[in-house]
């Protein structure tokens, strides 16, 4: 039996399991990876309502990472919600100290799908610029890309970020051509990933699932573009799995 690659998610706990740690773990399992999970926040939410976010202490997050990486080899990490850019930078530095070749996929959740605003992440700080230099892929949606640099156009923001890291601009919040994703690489190339499945329904946590699916495919040795393409096909299956806000991961 072939060994599965190890993948780590560092994200919040969502009791509905549509987003966050448990959604990531379901994705990793479905895509034949072994998933580890480190909790950054305990949330009080359902698929439609978000009432509170209780952040984990930075030391606890690092201790959870430490005990895992002491025993297991992990080369690919997906990061979701985290308290602020400074804590995120500290966590990324901690990861890279343990494994300098680690590839990190950051899904920058500034606001939950039920409109809860993670206000500490709404303002870009010098730490954010350092973060961009150290991660492998950033996966913002249209609302998030607009929020990073309010004084820049989307095109200027993409140019700035893609000089530092690869960017997958998710198309789920586009006003036109809904579902069209665009991959901007550090090498200056843009690839368009158009939606294939037309029979899809909105899902809570779809951004989490997409970024964790891409991370899973990267861990299996697929190149970036192929991983994004396969990740998109996977999330489309989840989006079309039923008509509720909570998708299925076994089709």
TrEMBL record:
Keywords: Kinase, Transferase
A GO molecular-function annotation: kinase activity
InterPro entries assigned to the protein according to its UniProt record, in alphabetical order: HMP/HMP-P_kinase_dom (IPR004399), PM/HMP-P_kinase-1 (IPR013749), Ribokinase-like (IPR029056)
Coiled coil stretches, renumbered: none
Pathway involvement of the protein, from the record: Cofactor biosynthesis; thiamine diphosphate biosynthesis
Kinase keyword on record: yes
Pfam families: Phos_pyr_kin
EC number: 2.7.1.49
Entry keyword Kinase: yes
Sequence ranges assigned to domain Pyridoxamine kinase/Phosphomethylpyrimidine kinase in this UniProt record: 14-245
Protein name per its UniProtKB record: hydroxymethylpyrimidine kinase
UniProt source species: Aquimarina rubra
